[in-house]
Amino acid sequence: MEMKRGPIYQFPSADHDLPITIALIGINYCNSNYLNIRKKSRITVLGYVLSGEGNVTLDDSSFHPKKGDVFVLPAGRYHRVFANPESEEPWNYIWFNIKGDLAVALLHAYRLSESIVVSDMSAGLLFQRAIQLAQSEKPQEMLDIMPIIFLQIVIRLSNTKNERKNSYSEEVQKIKHFLNNQIQIPFNSNQLSKHIGLSFKQINRLFKKETGTTVYNYVLMKKIDAAKMMLLDTPLTVNEICYHLGYADPQYFSNLFKKKTGMSPSIFRSQNKTH
Predict the structure, then answer these.
(1) Residue 34's domain spans which residues?
(2) Which part of the chain is the HTH araC/xylS-type domain (predicted)?
(3) Same domain, yes or no: 121 and 204
């Protein structure tokens, strides 16, 4: 039994490396056995769900995108995408395969690198527009059009996230306030549960539903962002930064930093610090 079917549109690669190249897009009509794993993906994947519900995993975080959702899987990370056999409707989605460091940089700049799933049907119109153009335009022209559509999608998703920031429930605002004040100490789920008055499972479900990311991922990225600032703006050593952020093991911290940024703290400092 085949795992999926659907059209694939391929555009010619440029004669030289470009910061963003989108040479493949298509639609997956998935059977219940559909599974796609990339252990350290060389491409960034964007998807828009047309129907049904599936499962996506980015590193250690799993989500269940459904109709009207966009999922974002940056390059250099572990990707797992598979159908939900219990979904009432078949899982069908439009996908873009994107190459280039600029794609990852843009997702990070617009704070989408950890927002694996964003519900935004208006962004879905841009995905559908890309498929329509692929059916009518010359492949060479699509190579120029697709990066523009990608940027439009990124901006649309970012705007949607920002618009929703002011509409978080009182509980999620309270969770975020607590977490923002815990960046310099080890994360403790029991303390969070006691402060909020809900089980950690309930907190994580609520937080993930409204923010598009897990509590752990939120805390981790806050720590990574703080580490970046200290690497660039202070003379603190990597070990000192590690302890300052509540980690006891510098090697563990360095591995986490590299997993999320693609480079070690020392290399990040040397490549980005201005003299």
Answers:
(1) 4-165
(2) 173-271
(3) no
